[in-house]
Design a protein that fits this description.
alpha/beta; Quinone Oxidoreductase, Chain A, domain 1; Rossmann fold; 2 domains; 6-stranded parallel sheet; 11 helices
Length: about 350
């Protein structure tokens, strides 16, 4: 029997998010039914709700940073039981038979992972709806265990902002002895600082905004460089092993590439548009430098990240909001007026008539 669900949805690229009732499938044998307690608000929610990537399906219920409590499980589920605290990130399924899936890299599934929202379920062909809602039904393979010592509110954004920054740092084996820089101090950037510091690297923040030094140091930065100051940029020429670029809009990579050592790597995690202005190939060739990209992590790595956060006391800095304030929160995100991630208290849905 289908489940009737309350949530908030965008009905077009220009409409505000508004209350929306919809149906979810009943639990399949391998499904977990989760009562959603908290849902983080990601900048990609705005991109998708406003069709800025050109692939939006309406009505759309955003949200892919989900923390909740299991209410029941399908007959074949053994890993979870009613009452467990769990998380759901950006994916709810994948083909599970391609090379990437076999290696635990479901985010790079050859047949494309099924997204938590604005996707199509690969089994029944119905649209997926996300975490701005009271309940979700997810295959048990894509459900994460929440460590008891993690605060569920501040853990929610770890499922996107956290794993998006953790995964490249782990993949490129960042640790003690490395000098790394983070570009941007937002939801992703502040997590990049925390993880890089926890991994033992010497960490620098690149920012265009004067006055962020004390905040950056609180989050783990050893140094702060004002990227609009030519003298400061010159002082770190050929200095870094690795740059984590969290900026979600087009920007000039060339000044940052000049700060990489030979064989240095500049990884993009926030930008999916074409590079503009163009990268000067000579700056890559003459230093054997790399510009690369990284998505989120697979399910196993995301669980590893949650366990790492629990062991090291790492969480997102958040501001709690009610779902009724989501449209104002979107505008504040666009104005960079949040430190550093909004999280929706889904109990506020109960106030809807």
């Amino acid at each position: 029997m289908a489940l009737t669900i309350r949530g908030y949805a965008a009905h077009s690229s220009t409409s505000a998010l508004a209350p929306f009732n919809f149906t979810r499938r009943d639990a399949r044998a391998n499904d977990v039914v989760i009562d959603i307690l908290y849902c983080g608000v990601c900048h990609s929610d705005i991109h998708q709700a406003r069709n800025e990537w050109g692939n939006s399906l309406y009505p759309m219920v955003p949200g892919h940073e989900i923390i909740g409590r299991v209410s029941r499980v399908g007959a074949a589920v053994t890993r979870f039981k009613a009452g467990d605290m769990v998380g759901v990130g950006c994916m709810v399924d994948s083909c599970q038979h391609c090379e990437s899936c076999a290696e635990g890299l479901e985010q790079y599934c050859d047949e494309h992972a099924t997204l938590t929202y604005n996707g199509i379920d690969r089994h029944d062909g119905l649209p997926t709806y996300g975490g701005y809602s009271e309940r979700i039904v997810v295959s048990d393979k894509f459900v994460l265990s929440l460590p008891e010592t993690l605060d569920p509110k501040s853990a929610a954004p770890l499922l996107c902002a956290g794993i998006t920054t953790y995964s490249p740092l782990r993949h490129w084996k960042i640790g003690a002895g490395h000098k790394i820089a983070v570009i941007g101090l937002g939801g992703l950037g502040h997590m990049g600082l925390k993880f890089a510091k926890a991994f033992g690297a010497e960490v620098t923040l690149f920012t265009r905004s004067p006055g962020k030094e004390s905040e950056a140091r609180r989050l783990g930065a050893d140094h702060v460089v004002l990227s609009t100051d030519p003298a400061q940029m010159q002082a770190v020429s050929s200095h870094f092993d690795f740059i984590l670029d969290t900026v979600p809009h087009q920007h000039d990579l060339n000044p940052y590439l000049a700060t990489l050592k030979r064989d240095g790597t500049h990884v993009l995690v926030g930008l999916i548009e074409p590079l503009e202005p163009a990268v000067h190939a000579a700056s890559l060739i003459m230093g054997r430098k790399s510009v690369v990209g990284s998505a989120i992590g697979g399910i196993a790595e995301t669980q590893e990240m949650l366990d790492f956060c629990a062991a090291n006391g790492i969480a997102c800095d958040i501001e709690m909001i009610d779902i009724q304030n989501i449209n104002g929160a979107y505008q504040r995100m666009l104005d960079s007026d949040v430190k550093y991630r909004f999280v929706i208290d889904m109990a506020s849905l109960r106030r809807e008539v």
